[in-house]
UniProtKB/TrEMBL annotation, chains A, B:
Cofactor(s) of this protein: thiamine diphosphate
NCBIfam families recorded: PRK05261.1-2, PRK05261.1-4, PRK05261.1-6
Residue ranges of domain Xylulose 5-phosphate/Fructose 6-phosphate phosphoketolase N-terminal in the record: 3-353
E.C. code: 4.1.2.-
Lineage of producing organism: Bacteria, Bacillati, Actinomycetota, Actinomycetes, Streptosporangiales
Family to which this protein belongs: Belongs to the XFP family.
This protein's name: Probable phosphoketolase
First-tier enzyme category under EC: lyase
Gene3D superfamilies per UniProt: 3.40.50.920, 3.40.50.970
Chain segments annotated as coiled-coil in the UniProt record: none
This protein's UniProt keywords: Lyase, Thiamine pyrophosphate
Source organism: Streptosporangium amethystogenes subsp. fukuiense
Domain (Xylulose 5-phosphate/Fructose 6-phosphate phosphoketolase C-terminal) ranges: 568-769
Length: 771, 771
């Protein structure tokens, strides 16, 4: 038996096991004729893409074995879940992870039964599937994940199967250009396999229906050397695929060694549902969209369908593939690699196994000196940039900073003192900070930044994604999927913790001075808090030192999504580093120096979260001290938003007693919030003081205007906060009608000033804490 | 003076006006030497892309004039706002829309001053800009908008400038393939102009730095005939652009008449910040990323910068362009088209002007008969499909149905009785329902579906986007931008109302039986309700008849985003059509037949929104009637979610008195909700009864399992609701401990059943209202 016969045996075994998973409850080896009671009552799975995935698996195994090639497999058409599971079972890694699913008839029966079955496993390639870093639910991110996995893994090849459905998505279409960001010397290689089976759920696909010459140009235009493997006769296709893969891996070696400047890719054209039923009930199935899910649907009721299923399964000749006990025979396993070279057991696909902690410089060394609170302004992200610069310097192959062309705009440019932007395309003499292997990944695609970072993290590395706040919504859906991946992994004993996905959202809603309304959206936080509390964290550090402390904490954490919102514009330094650390550790606290309740029960609580709302709150506190000196005002700043929830809702949640101690149970609370105000209500609606809580925040008003005009448009400005206090503290409304009017006048004057001069009044621009 | 000299004069005038907008408060015609007080205090704008945009405008005007060509202009690099404004002012349409900005020196000064100035206009191409259907904030959607505008507009050419930054985004990369969905006979043409000025904010761009031969292949691979216009000498470039445009418009004519099967496109390669300062402070600016925003930043402080600005502005020779009064001279206006042929006044770019109401068949004709409530099941979307079929039939050029390959999966397939899927690529004999000009647009890209529909609506037509609920998050950011567009348009007197953007979210969180966790996310509603109440509407019709009534209402509405969540799986028919209409008109109401409070004050309110939660609520009500017959239970169903808000928050909001009448002010309310439970709290936290409100909903638990197991995983199932009632109705906990245990046992039995048999118990699957 030659190598291709072994590959074919493996392929047939994987196909057999895939069909078994979709259909069978019992009789896994077909030791008796199929009967209706062997069939699952609900047939839930996707056959169409599966034989193609199995074909690639089988052939890549031969390459791994022959070349000792470190390789992982990203299955873009991840609804072909049965393929990945079959593969892991054949390679033995499924049984290693799940010992009750043994490599024998009983284990095979369990394998079949559990698939897409209550209490069993998902129908897609999922976190539960050994060897996967890529959930196959939402399409579009396979190639970005593959490149993310390849960065800084010089010996790795990431084989990435891209379905022709997925290829229609925008994110995938944009991902092809990732090759301009790959360093042949320090990064691994990606082998895209565009699998044209011609159909998605109910339609032909675009790339399957354009002239082949156009497809060649498209792939060459994307910067690849395409190789076509087309056909349906298994014997011919095995020979063609093997020969192509040999050529392709030679070309990858050439690329890695600088002898070729383009990566190869493969276009694999096979029928959808290949080797399945050709025709069912008089309609063509194999090679059409009808093969997408379950080709034979009435197997339990129709003796004819049942017979077709049996014939189909027996066409793989299971008796040649499994021994009497149900164990795969030697011929099937001939091309299966050893130990961690098995794609289903490769540690890169369980990144926590390879995770090296970041070496972190002491963030205290980057502290800004704060002699007195709120007197001097600093750009927080610029300070963070210096910390990140040194993080990059001491972790040269274990950390990447992603951003859609905004790293400098977000004022993190200190990083360019030690590294460059990754770039493997033409450079010109006027270029700055572009180089192969640069640690900063900039491309004008939030999807690519997110996808690369996910792939990088899932294979055991670290990173941070800096983004304009409004445009992080572009990856809402990707965040959702990654959070779900993390949620699922918490219940999977063999998935090892990975570094958290860290977002730094800067250029935020309150400071879009020259971009305006389209750039104003703080709603990503609302999306984030919908995910399980165990995996999400939200921080709004109000100044440079709290940002440093928060960033250090996030970079050390595991298995979370951390969202940090921090401004790039100068804001007043509030806390010396030791107090900043204490404040961040508590997650929220009273700013004693800004409060006038002197440890007694206050008349009103001014709460705030976010840098601009905190500034306005402080200015309001100062106005109140000046104009209503007898009023006892408490200022509470919140850094860790999740502290507001009850402990039953979030691990960071504080008890009602703590909440009441800080916010009181019965005094008015004016909460000045960075984002949409309802989020604060949502987090606190069960608190005693909730009925007294009045939240200001972004209420979807904005344009290109001055910072203070933006605050006024949304009523988060200092003058309006004073008016809110007057309106809500019992008895104050009557006494302070004149002050209220005065505040209103000052707002009008401020607005008139900006409209006259195009900038905020100096006393507002230059305001510092006066006490 | 020949035509190209006129084009050049126009271009210089537009460039002059663009620089003036960025810099000047006064002295608009440079009638005196520039002084610091003529300069704005804050310089906020984007010069880099602007001269290229102006160049295209100028040349396209010649084509329009010479060929009488109906054309609109989509400016992908929309932060080049000064260009679009300059153009509208030169064409006179700015003054028509805003009479106080006249075509004279005073008007020019106002034009300059207002730009990116408090109380003025946004810095981007925005709804305020005449002639635009495309906000230039978030990048990625220009080409999709352009195609959307072209559909069913056979005489229109949509010129679409795509910045090389935007070209890196996924959505844009995927949009090129829109040409496979264009019908040369019935649709207009799109002319993509890929503008390679080489840089984004701080980086070179990918497409500017790949070999030209690769770029040619890429464009040919996308199915276009590329034409290159490259250089920087204005005279040479004018000749080259004019000659190229003549050829290109000939090719478009050939394409339209079936003599060519590929659309042309142009690659325009010019320096970033073309004609601006070449070098500032010893650093190159023109032709680099430094030209992105404001090339000279210290104009007010530095006499040298001030002089450079004056020299720059005078380089356009304003004295040749404007007469003494500041009006553009005849030579400048020579190529400006007449009336509605001006791109800044084209009615397609103010789609409401062209809007024809949909012809709507009577939705009552599609009603399912309901002899008794909740006895018979129907697939709601299948019924809707019949209504949509006839909508399509009687509106053959005014309505499109978009969906990412899910129209059949979402069970709207009746539409294929009268139309096909739009398809202009290869077809095979086995294909079904593919044809040029099909009214159904299916591509596996939510971005394209959304972008096409936006472009279609903004040019005055109608449509509906059907999507899997979880994956609508893919277009969260696009929804945000469209909602912001609608919000802004409400304040713009000349923007005419357009048809609402209608979403049908099906294949929802509760019925992902074979897809599982990755397909479970009802959080789009949370994103939607962050936008201004004036433009967002959310409906959860619980059955077929309420879905029909809701859909009819939405299709008639204007200027909203309507989100309809409705299942495709069979659900019990609750209401005969007349009651369904009344129920939808109220937006919520008591289901009398399911309630046992007989018009008196109830002991508990069971509220519900969404089809599956409503089913479980009804089953719980039946269980309570059986087991606790003395308990007075009120069942309230909510269709229009916005009714829950106070009227101060949303126009649909109901008064506290109404709310109390329905929900009581003091009785326990168990609210079974389709989405994340916090949304209901967020909408109702100010209500009297809020402290008694207990919400069940999706709490991020799920996998591939049975429908009832999904309900149990998230505690929205009938048994758990009964337990909730027992726990919350005063005095019931003690009396009904046994019943509570019984409910718990029934849950356990149901779960054990699904895990044994792989399907829900028959008494749950087949449950109907028993009274």
């Amino acid at each position: 038996m030659d190598a291709l016969a072994h590959v074919d045996a493996y392929w047939r075994a994987a196909n057999y096991l895939s069909v078994g998973q979709i259909y069978l409850l019992a009789n896994p080896l077909l030791t008796e004729p199929l009967r209706p009671e062997h069939i699952k009552p609900r047939l839930l799975g996707h056959w169409g893409t599966t034989p193609g995935l199995n074909f690639c698996f089988a052939h890549l195994n031969r390459i791994i074995t022959e070349r000792d090639q470190d390789m992982i497999y990203v299955a873009g058409p991840g609804h072909g879940g049965p393929a990945a599971v079959a593969h892991a079972w054949l390679e033995g890694s499924y049984t290693e992870k799940y010992p009750d699913v043994g490599q024998d008839a009983r284990g095979m029966q369990r394998l079949f039964r559990q698939f897409s079955f209550p209490g069993g496993i998902p129908s897609h390639v999922a976190p539960e599937t050994p060897g996967s870093i890529h959930e196959g639910g939402e399409l579009g991110y396979a190639l970005a994940h593959a490149y993310g996995a390849a960065f800084d893994n010089p010996d790795l090849v990431v084989a990435c199967v891209i379905g022709d459905g997925e290829a229609e998505t925008g994110p995938l279409a944009g991902s092809w250009h990732s090759n301009k960001f790959l360093d042949p010397a320090c990064d691994g290689a990606v082998l895209p396999i565009l699998h044209l089976n011609g159909y998605k759920i109910a339609n032909p696909t675009v790339l399957a229906r354009i002239p082949e010459e156009e497809l060649v140009k498209l792939m060459e235009g994307y910067g690849y050397r395409p190789h076509f493997v087309s056909g349906e006769d298994p014997e011919v296709m095995h020979a063609l695929m093997a020969e192509t893969l040999d050529r392709v891996f030679d070309q990858i070696a050439d690329y890695r060694q600088g002898r070729a400047d383009r990566l190869p890719m493969i276009v694999l054209r096979t029928p959808k549902g290949w080797t399945g039923p050709r025709e069912v009930d008089g309609l063509p199935v194999e090679g059409t969209w009808r093969a997408h899910q379950v080709p034979l649907t009435r197997v339990r009721d129709s003796p004819e369908h049942l017979a077709m299923l049996e014939e189909w399964m027996r066409s793989y000749r299971p008796e040649e593939l499994f021994d009497g006990r149900g164990h795969p025979v030697a011929e099937v396993l001939e091309t299966v690699p050893e130990g961690p070279l098995r794609m289903s057991a490769n540690p890169h696909a369980n990144g926590g196994e390879l995770l090296r902690p970041l070496v972190l410089p002491d963030f205290r060394d980057y502290a800004v000196e704060v002699k007195a609170p709120a007197r001097v302004s600093t750009e927080p992200t610029r300070v963070l940039g210096m910390f990140l610069r040194d993080v990059i310097a001491v972790n040269p192959d274990n950390f990447r900073l992603m951003g859609p062309d905004e790293t400098a705009s977000n004022r993190l440019s200190a990083v360019f003192e030690v590294t460059d932007r990754a770039w493997d395309a033409e450079t010109l003499p006027t270029d700055e900070n572009l180089a192969r292997g640069g640690r900063v990944m900039e491309v004008l695609s939030e999807h690519l930044c997110q996808g690369w970072l996910e792939g990088y993290l899932l294979t055991g590395r670290h990173g941070l994604f800096n983004c304009y706040e409004a445009f992080i919504h572009i990856v809402d859906a990707m965040f959702n999927q990654h959070a779900k991946w993390l949620e699922a992994c918490r219940k999977i004993h063999w998935r090892r913790p990975i570094a958290s996905l860290n977002y730094l959202l800067s250029s935020h809603v309150w400071r879009q001075d020259h971009n305006g309304f389209s750039h104003q959206d703080p709603g990503f936080l609302d999306v984030v808090v919908n995910k399980k509390a165990e995996v999400v964290r939200v921080y709004l550090p109000p100044d440079a030192n709290t940002l440093l402390s928060t960033a250090d904490h996030c970079l050390r954490s595991r298995d979370y999504v951390n969202v940090i919102v921090a401004g790039k514009q100068p804001v007043l330094d509030l806390l010396p580093m030791d107090e900043a650390i204490a404040h961040c550790t508590r997650g929220l606290g009273i700013l004693e120096w800004a409060s006038s309740d002197a440890g007694t029960e206050p008349d009103v609580v001014l709460a705030c979260a976010g840098d601009v709302p905190t500034l306005e709150t402080l200015a309001a506190a100062a106005l109140l001290r000046e104009c209503l000196p007898e009023l006892r005002v408490r200022v509470v700043n919140v850094v860790d938003l999740m502290r507001l929830q009850p402990p039953s809702e979030h691990p960071h949640g504080m008890s009602d007693a703590e909440f009441d101690t800080l916010f009181t149970a019965d005094k008015p609370i004016i909460f000045n919030f960075h984002g949409y105000p309802w989020l604060i209500h949502r987090l606190t609606y069960r608190r005693h003081g909730h009925d007294n809580l009045h939240v200001r925040g972004y209420k979807e008003e904005g344009t290109t205007t001055t910072p203070f005009d933006m605050a006024m448009l949304n009523d988060i400005d200092r003058f309006h906060l004073v008016m809110d206090v007057i309106d809500r503290v019992p008895g104050l409304a009557e006494r302070s009608a004149h002050l209220r009017q005065h505040m209103m006048d000052r707002r009008l004057r401020a607005r008139a000033h900006t409209r006259e001069y195009g900038e905020d009044p100096a006393e507002i621009r230059d305001w510092t804490w006066p006490y």
